User: What shape does this take?
Amino acid sequence: MRSRCMAFALACLLSACTSYGVIKNTPVTASTASQTYGIKDWRKGQNSGDLLLMLAFSGGGTRAAALSYGVLKELRDTVVQIDGRPVRLLDEVDAISSVSGGSFTAAYYGLHGDKTFTDFEGAFLRRNIQASLVDLVLNPFAWFSSTGRTDRAIEFYQRNIFDGATFADMAVPKRPLILINASDLAYGVRFSFIQEYFTLLCSDLSTFPVARAVAASSAVPVLFDPVVLENYAGCDADVGGWLQPAKQRAAGNVQLTQTLEGVETYLDKDKRKYVHFVDGGITDNLGLRAILDIFDAVGGFDAVLARLKVDPPRHVIVISVNAATNPEPLMDGSDKQPSLAETVGAMNDVQLRRYSAATLDAIRQGMAQWAQSASTPQRSVSTHFIQVTFADLPDTGQRKFFQALPTSFSLSDEEVDKLISVGGSLLRENAQFQGLLTELNAR
Assistant: This one.
């Protein structure tokens, strides 16, 4: 693995000539304005209405993609009683928020539904994606090209994984809303690839390639170039009606205030003619903050329900699939000074773990507020926050095995098999998940 990473890093250095982002987002027009993929049409005719079930897929390369895939399989195989009829829990999923490696699974399921369970392993999980990307960058014809590394990776994703699909192909009835999240490199804004965010850029999401959104979500800085979008002028970006009230409500909420201030910068078309997006894990490696931001920006859980014109669900469920690892550091076994890579890696890991812990606290508090605001004497709302994480594995040897898996786009078939299996078992054996199933079947 070390040699493959070194080869890729060398390839990046060899191809470090000036490159320019390929612009693929188009301006919104009167004819495309109604072709939305976003919150506006979320939950129209969706599922039973008794449950609001949202998934969050973390970053972590193929490790994250395989773990989240295992959770999808377990939800497919879990049948509950709703309104007196058996229903697969997978069919009750309303939204999936994802970053980085988890975005490959989320996007593929958003496009293909159940076909994911026959095709995704061959299309992504069991392919040496990393070797293919290295070959693309090492190709001598690419060294002098103005097309950057990321755009060459996007071409590969387009051909071999997503078959040229756009977000218009994602708009399938009764499929969950897929929130593919990236980070605005200049302002640190979490950006979700839904029409509400694209409207800020006066751009049409329906024609935008899914592969490009996934590439932005997983574009680790330095190794990959940012994905560039043009910020068009000339449309009536309807943000005045919600942005200022949202900023007032955000008083005291530092995270939301920073997000809204960053969003407001998209309205300055002269200053921000182009926007550069990189790995979504930089601003939230769990994929949970995007869910919180959307509810908070609109005005809270009950405000979202009112805008969607739906009754409060009886159960609000968030399942966080966290493929993060916490391997034991080796530097303390010697008085040798740690290398630059070890030092930078340790600093990043510390910041990431602390920010993720704050995110987990925020989602728990947020869900408690959702239940309180939406419950009535006639209809109470219960919340269930379920975590799927390697830290919950009781066996020390098994836990160390998964903690040692690298963040890469190349894992062995054996490693993929174990990740898929453990994703299902971690969810199935989770106490909160078992409590939810008991509660649903009791009803």
